[in-house]
């Protein structure tokens, strides 16, 4: 048999030194591996073979051109117990039929139903931050953006009639995310992959035999979220005849699934998709917003540009969906922030059959990890990549970019269906907040990464709030990022 070519990567003692030396900083590890071995790196641990991909052509091959050879893999089995058969975890015909129904509901032209909620929530947050700015206080904007985007998610997914339970929803989602993060690095996760066992949902039934405090809290949080979601579903069923006028995703999902494009959604189908959007959607947006606010503080000239553009376009009124294309500076700012700090910093796939990527053999069962963080900072495709420069996203610049070099929302059929929703939400919040609050860095503060499911800032993001009149307008602000 002809020998198959293997991708370069650390082996033996070199592998151990590399991994053990960078356990606390996986981003630095990835940067080192790329610098030493190139755009496709193979890491072998026992029988497991993982390929780290930071080449645009190879990324598109996996995500677009040969996507049928790659599944979401066993890692998503853990999520399936929580999210059910939602878009993030499902495969095959089930995923295709649900994607066909859900994608149009989140398309940019359909966002008008959700924009009023975004605008109202952004205005409330801007007013609260304005009060804090008048006192010159420092706040953790990561916590505040988590609360803000979770509130928007609750109201757009479930409707305004769950306002009285928003605090419960917030606590429950936070508990679930914390537990899932612990589970990813815990030996207990292997219990949930036992043959024939339904993960997480099965393990919840074993609470009596594994009565840990974290599992008890997790079970209670799931029960609360299920109760809220099914309560909303039951209410929407009472007025299905008017569901097309509704402005929440529960009603829209029920109406769209009865349009003849596929089998109608069951209550469990709706529950699974709403839970997926809660868990998989809100934290990515809050993380992106947090890095945007950090970049505003680091680059006050761009903060001033966004505020002046908002004043010129909006004239003091709240933004609408039709205003967003005219908020050019804010959109370019968001695009550049997502380049430097992509919330989804890695995209995992598992090879179903044999494949070749960049000339290297990919055997079945291999883990293939696409790395947007490295793709977005590759000097081959991004001149002076560490420099913050929103003008990279001028139309002329974007046309010349290699496809696959920019993947903040993935690519191909599995590309995030909520990308338009997320970018609209971030634009609206920035345009609203920047007119009433300025952000400044604490002296000596440098953020670090806590790369988990998303690219979180380690220890939060403390920024000092000041009135806009105090905003520094010097263009000699720092121009380098981590």
Report on the structure:
By secondary structure, this protein is α+β, with helices and mostly antiparallel strands. The protein has 17 helices and twelve strands. It has helices at 12-21, 26-37, 56-65, 75-83, 92-105, 115-134, 141-158, 166-184, 201-205, 213-238, 249-257, 267-298, 300-314, 328-340, 372-375, 395-399, 419-433; strands spanning 40-45, 48-53, 70-71, 138-140, 347-351, 355-357, 360-362, 367-370, 438-441, 449-451, 455-457, 462-466. The strands form four sheets. Strands 1-2-8-5-3 form a five-stranded mixed beta sheet, sandwiched between helices. The chain is globular, with a radius of gyration of 23 Å.
What's a concise summary of this model?
49% of the residues lie in helices and 10% in strands. With 482 residues, it is α+β, with helices and mostly antiparallel strands.
How many helical elements?
Answer: 17
State the strand order across the main sheet: 1-2-8-5-3
Radius of gyration using CA atoms only = 23 Å
Low-confidence stretches: 187-209, 472-479
**N-to-C SSE series?**
HHEEHEHHHEHHHHHHHHEEEEHHHEEEE
> Helicity, in percent?
40-55%
Biggest β-sheet strands, sense, barrel: 5 strands, mixed
Strand content: 5-15%
Which structural class best describes the helix and strand composition? alpha+beta
**What distance lies between the first and last C-alpha atoms, to the nearest angstrom?**
47 Å
Number of strands: 12
Average pLDDT number: 83
Shape: globular
């Amino acid at each position: 048999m002809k020998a198959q070519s293997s991708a370069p990567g650390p082996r033996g003692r070199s592998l151990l030194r590399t991994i053990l030396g960078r356990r606390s900083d996986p981003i630095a590890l990835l940067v080192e591996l790329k610098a030493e071995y190139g755009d496709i790196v193979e890491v072998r641990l026992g029988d497991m073979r993982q390929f780290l991909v930071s080449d645009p052509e190879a990324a598109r091959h996996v995500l677009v051109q040969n996507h049928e050879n790659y599944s979401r893999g066993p890692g998503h089995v853990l999520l399936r117990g929580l999210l059910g058969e939602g878009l993030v975890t499902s495969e095959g015909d089930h995923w295709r039929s649900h994607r066909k129904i859900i994608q149009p509901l989140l398309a940019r032209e359909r966002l008008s139903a959700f924009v009023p909620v975004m605008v109202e929530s952004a205005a409330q947050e801007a007013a609260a931050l304005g009060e804090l700015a008048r006192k010159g206080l420092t706040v953790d904007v990561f916590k505040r953006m988590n609360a803000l985007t979770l509130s928007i998610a609750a109201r757009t997914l479930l409707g305004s009639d769950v306002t009285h339970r928003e605090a419960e929803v917030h606590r429950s989602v936070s508990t679930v995310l914390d537990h899932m993060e612990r589970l990813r690095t815990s030996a207990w996760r292997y219990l949930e992959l036992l043959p024939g066992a339904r993960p997480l949902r099965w393990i919840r039934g074993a609470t009596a035999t594994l009565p840990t405090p974290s599992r008890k809290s997790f079970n209670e949080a799931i029960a609360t979220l299920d109760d809220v979601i099914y309560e909303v579903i039951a209410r929407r069923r009472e007025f299905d005849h008017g569901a097309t006028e509704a402005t929440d995703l529960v009603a829209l999902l029920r109406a769209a699934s009865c349009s003849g494009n596929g089998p109608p959604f069951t209550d469990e189908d709706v529950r699974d998709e709403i839970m997926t959007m809660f868990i998989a959607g809100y934290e990515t947006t809050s993380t992106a917003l947090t890095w945007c606010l950090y970049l505003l503080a680091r680059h006050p000239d761009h903060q001033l540009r966004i505020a002046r553009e908002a004043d010129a376009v909006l004239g003091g009124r709240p933004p609408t969906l039709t205003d967003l294309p005219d908020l050019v500076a804010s959109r370019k700012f968001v695009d550049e922030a997502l380049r430097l700090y992509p919330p989804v910093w890695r995209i995992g796939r598992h090879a179903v059959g044999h494949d070749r990527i960049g000339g290297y053999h990919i055997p079945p069962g291999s883990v293939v990890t696409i790395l947007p963080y490295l793709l977005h900072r590759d000097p081959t495709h991004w001149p002076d990549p560490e420099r913050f420069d929103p003008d990279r996203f001028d139309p002329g610049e974007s046309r010349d970019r290699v496809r696959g070099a920019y993947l903040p929302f993935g690519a191909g059929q599995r590309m995030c269906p909520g990308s338009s929703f997320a970018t609209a939400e971030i634009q609206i919040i920035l345009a609203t907040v920047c007119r009433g609050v300025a952000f400044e860095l604490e002296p000596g503060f440098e953020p670090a990464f806590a790369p988990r499911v998303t690219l979180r800032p380690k220890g939060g993001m403390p920024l000092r709030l000041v009135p806009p009149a105090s905003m520094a307008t010097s263009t000699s602000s720092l121009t380098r990022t981590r």
